[in-house]
Amino acid sequence: MKKSAFWLLSLLLVMSVFLAACSGGGEKASTEKEPKDDGKASGEAQEGGTVTFGYTQPFKGVLSYAYYEGEDDVNALQFMHEGLLKVNDELISEPNLADYELSEDNTKLTFKLKQGVKWHDGEELTAEDMEFAWYLIADPTYEGARFANVAMIKGAQEYKDGKAESIEGIKVVDDYTIEVTVTEPSVNLLENIWVYPEPKHHYGDISSKELPDSDQIRKTPIGVGPFKVKNIVPGEMIEFERFDDYWQGPAKLDGVVYKIIDGSLAQGLVQNGEIDVIEAPKDQWEAIKALDNVNPVEADAMSYSYIAFDWGHYDTKKGVVVSDNKKFQNKSLRHAMAHAIDRQAFIDGFANGLGKPLNTPFPSVSWAKIDDSELNQYEYDPEKAKKLLDEAGYVDKDGDGFREDPEGKPFTINFDAMAGAETSEARAQFILQSWQEVGLNAKLNGGSLKDFNLFYDTIEADDPSVETFMGAWGLANDPDPAGIWLSTDKWNMWRWYSEKSDELIKKGVSFPEDASKDVTEHRQEVYNEWQKLVNEELPIIFFEQRVDPWAINKRVGGVKVTPFGTDEFHKWHIVE
Predict the structure, then answer these.
(1) What is the pLDDT of residue 34?
(2) What radius of gyration, in Å, describes the C-alpha atoms of the chain?
(3) Residue 433: in which H helix or E strand, if any?
(4) Residue 171's beta-bridge partner residues?
(5) Where is this region: Disordered (predicted)?
(6) b/e burial code for range 517-549 (CB count within 10 A of at least 16 → b)
(7) CB under 8 Å to 325, separation ≥6 — which residues?
(8) Could you tell me if 532 and 370 are in contact, meaning their C-beta atoms sit under 8 angstroms apart?
(9) For the chain, which end, N or C, has fewer CB atoms within 10 Å of the first or last residue's CB respectively?
């Protein structure tokens, strides 16, 4: 699962969930579930040329899959690096840089790397680069969020805890073969294990803790993808040029420019041809999709937005969330705050109808999504919200128009949201007014919105002023909620601990006790139970499942749009 200004991804695997940004606007949700090609670029494909890919939030510049966090950086990484596996059109993992073989008891996975795959500096990709990536993530000093993607390797936890000098379950057989033994069988090992190699020769002796701030990642990053970095203007632009030794053959384009823009100017920049490909701000979609030079594509996305309650903090030493904030532990309060918001009106008003309310962390494009008839729907019902608050003891005792808490003390709610879209401020005010209209004294934390990176940095730091916040996740192809929802997950942003939730999440990746039972049926049953649990407990308000609007200039062909974003970058081309 993934941060996205909308929480994040292209062909990312389970471990590659990302934080996404909350873009504005929308339109009717497409029922299309298959990946899409722009399909409308007519004319003959030309060799050469440059395409500009736009994004509306500054990027951090952490250009390594092992360390990046947000959509801002993965938008750049997708052009320059790839994994041993990829996700196909059926959302199933399949070989990419390596073939694989899984033992009959599902405890040993062997990767056979393709020979002749080159890093951008000319060095050949070897099995040691994959081993190196696993060691970086399991290192005791690693501060990233992806240990869950190596934790299943035998001995990884002992290495992380400083109790072992090496990871017992990793064996490099030769330059192109690497075996990994896991602690126990799991049904989604291929989707969950980390598969992005890191360039051992390029990083040298830099520690895992220091790498995210190193020149090797910030200034001279390399990968094995179709484009290599030519120039970086921090936070503003990255120029890529074609990598002629790309393993699938040279890309058709000479280069790609990843350019950060002011989201409020997106329509004009697309119209003028300054931006060729962009996930358009939803609040401008009606105007952008009508432009003569644009092929518009709408795609159901593997992502969702939410409003989180702050449950506590993350204990870094113990590696577990601590739900010690009492403020939002009254379930009736959480239910009332959900019923107070007209989510459909929000989607219609700010997203051109692109999206629809959801009540579970699985969007409809996921095979594991439970039928809505089995869930609380949390329809807009301000009278029900008021009744729930009254019954829970949140009443206005001093006559100022706002409710006090059950102990009669003033009750205020801080709300955080991201800047970046033309309607960001109005969207935040919509939420605040919805809560105020049922008597809850809600206000914007600090009096202003935060940009993408400050927003997530503040939340991840467990800033005590953060009480509720609107965020989003980009998800991976497998429905396993681990990575975001386990009590040990650093990206459990709301810091919610539930023993039952942890138990079900782990059960969802185990094989059924009855060996004759279909694995998918078993997982569906487990995930149905888990979705009912989080739907009833409502640790966060599940807000909307997204429909992503992509604007693709008609001069650009070969752009494949999937539920995760765009893909097949080496096939992008200019048409005449």
Answers:
(1) 39
(2) 23
(3) helix 424-436
(4) 179
(5) 26-49
(6) eeeeebbbebbbebbbebbeebbbbbbbbbbbb
(7) 310, 311, 312, 313, 495
(8) yes
(9) C
Task: Name the residue among 188, 39, 110 with its Cα closest to residue 511.
Answer: 188
Q: CA-CA distance, 430 to 102, in Å (whole number)?
A: 51
- Which whole-number Å values give the CA distances from 510 to 87, 188, 348, in the listed order? 21, 9, 40
Phi and psi at residue 361, to the nearest 5°: -75, 0
C-alpha to C-alpha distance for 337 and 187, rounded to whole angstroms:
37
Give the three-state DSSP class for 289.
coil
Q: Dihedral sign, CA of 271, 277, 281, 285?
A: positive
pLDDT in tens, 522-531: 999 999 999 9
Alpha helices in 461-543 (DSSP H): 499-507, 519-537
Query: What angle is formed at CA 454 by the lines to CA 140 and CA 4, rounded to 5 degrees?
Result: 80
Contact (CB, 8 A) for 26 and 282: yes
Pairing of strands 565-567, 36-37: unpaired
Q: pLDDT tens digits, residue range 358-406? A: 999 999 989 999 999 999 999 999 999 999 999 999 999 999 999 999 9
The amino acid at residue 267 is: Q
Tokens of 236: 């503003």
Q: How many residues does the chain have?
A: 576
Using an 8 Å Cβ cutoff, are 488 and 319 in contact? yes
DSSP helix/strand/coil, 299: strand
Q: What phi, psi does 468 have (nearest 5°)?
A: -140, 150
Q: Count CB neighbours of 39 within 10 A.
A: 13
Q: Please, which pLDDT band fits residue 219 given cuts at 50, 70 and 90? A: very high
Count of Cβ atoms closer than 10 Å to residue 44 Cβ: 9
**Which of 145, 155, 134 is CA-nearest to residue 484?**
145
Mean pLDDT of 314-322: 93
Closest CA to 54 of 263, 285, 288, 296: 263
C-alpha 238/C-alpha 258 separation (Å) is 5
Looking at residue 540, what DSSP letter applies?
E
CB 281 within 8 A of CB 25: yes
SS3 133: helix
Quickly tell me which residue has 């990046």 as its tokens.
Answer: 68
Helix H or strand E segment including 454: helix 452-460
Burial class of residue 391 (count of CB atoms within 10 Å of its CB; 0-12, 13-18, 19+): exposed
Q: What is the DSSP letter of 546?
A: E
Provide the residue type at 341 as one letter: I
CA distance 354 to 171: 48
Any idea what DSSP says for residue 436? H
Which of 331, 413, 347, 339 lies closest to 382 in space, CA to CA? 339
Within 13 Å and on the Cβ side, how many CA atoms surround 412? Answer: 9
Assigned token pair, 433: 């007014």
Q: Burial level of 310, CB count in 10 A (0-12/13-18/19+)? A: buried
Q: pLDDT higher for 110 or 490?
A: 110
**In angstroms, what CA-CA distances link 501 with 187, 367, 484, 488?**
18, 20, 12, 12
